Amino acid sequence: MENYKERVNTLLLVSTLVATVTFAAGFTVPAGYNSSSNSDLGIATMLREKGFHAFIFCDTMAMYSSIIVDVALIWAQLSNLVLALNALTLEVPLLGVALGMMSMAFAAGVFLAVSELRWLSIAVLVMGITFLAILSVLLIPLCIPFTSSNRVLRYVSYYFFYLVILASNS
Description:
Keywords: ANK repeat, Membrane, Repeat, Transmembrane, Transmembrane helix. It holds the Pfam family PGG. The chain is an all-alpha fold. The protein has one domain. It contains 5 helices and no strands.
């Protein structure tokens, strides 16, 4: 039981950090707010931009996903081993969604900030999509319950993870 409590505490810490970051990002939007005295006072300056819509959508999804994970993991800490195991099984994919959405909100915000330079905004989008693909490949084996019994998926995820570790060491 103690091993699962450590896992629950670690996931709770990560999801709380995601909630904190996305909460702050929701109020410090890219390019700020209109401060003129017209009817748009206090409204986000990039409200009509499609990149801003992507930022808000991703940030909101990350925020609410991480809050759900927080609440479920708090319940898992207070109860028995069966509930802790069920919470770990159900909340890891949701935390993966929160992490992915947070990274895409970051990419959308940076894209908006550098949108005047086309080559730089395209580079930011390519990096964000590449990161999301790598994150997905690393998180999908954790989210699929039959991964440990499916030999092919287990080896694919193991070797991809191993390649990422090798690449980061060099």
